[in-house]
Amino acid sequence: MPPIPRAQLERLSYIDFRLYFLGELRRSDLVARFGMGPAGATRDIAQYREAAPGNLDFDGTRKLYLPSATFRPLFEHAPQRVLSALSQGFGQGAAEDLSPLLRCEIPTALSRPRMDVLAPVTRAIHCGKAVRLVYHSLSGPPGERELVPFALVDSGVRWHVRAFDRKSAEFRDFVLTRIESPEVLADSAVGPRESAEHDVQWSRIVELELLPHPSHARPDVIRRDYDMPDGVLRIRVRAANAGYMLRRWNVDCSPDLSLRGPEYALGLRDPLVLYGAANALLAPGYRPPAPASPADKLPGSRQRDDTAASSR
């Protein structure tokens, strides 16, 4: 399509979405979604028809548009955003304006951060500032900390923030629901070593190869579930998040894939890729490699020792 204003591009994408996923479109859908007049909705539908000729059929009886038999989506629709829109609605407006587009059931979130906690933390991330807060740790009484946060992470169970902790001088994860009274420190300078670029666990990318679990009765179905036509699902994750992801999906990370149970549909081909990942112990069945014994030396080292012994 030729360049068009972003606002109109969003409206054309919405037309494409409704035709593709809901199978119908009315002018009133655009009017309600974007707060526009009927004449503007008519112009957008005409623009869509021009950009994607043959995509629309008009049902004069019901006064609505239908996808044609030769319909092809004009836009690429990301699966996660599509499912979010269908189950929770569109837009960034007030919560009462959002409603599911289809009957959907999604898991209840048991752990939700308070907005008066989340907002200062996200402001600090966006502005590159530190934040002072009280943190409730499992390992001790509540205490004041200064953090330099740089990312939010959804572990699948709860949200946490990745941050540099000035108290321990380390990069760590802090659960948002355990944070109290955060205050953005507008005048506190953030040093270079406190930035994400110096977080080794965050910067390191771990490449995982997941397989259908060898004990699963229907590996062919597992290959379909996870779109692995060659039998392997390859994903890249940050070392800081690898343990969370593997636990969330119940991936068997034992050395011999020995875990049993219907929850283990996937296995990690090579658990050694997790070596050095700080939260690898969260991965089901993961066992760090045993420390090398004095006899377990590299061949080159053994040869040098033997040479030295023979020359004495």
UniProtKB/TrEMBL annotation:
All residue ranges annotated as the DNA-binding transcriptional repressor CapW C-terminal dimerisation domain in the record: 205-267
Stretches assigned to the DNA-binding transcriptional repressor CapW winged helix-turn-helix domain: 9-77
Domain of life of the native organism: Bacteria
Start and end residues of each WYL domain: 116-184
Region (Disordered), start-end ranges: 285-312
Organism: Variovorax ginsengisoli
InterPro entries from the UniProt entry: CapW-like, CapW_CTD, CBASS_pafABC_assoc_protein, WHD_CapW, WYL_dom
Stated name of the protein: WYL domain-containing protein
Compositional bias segments (type: Basic and acidic residues): 302-312
One Pfam family here: WYL
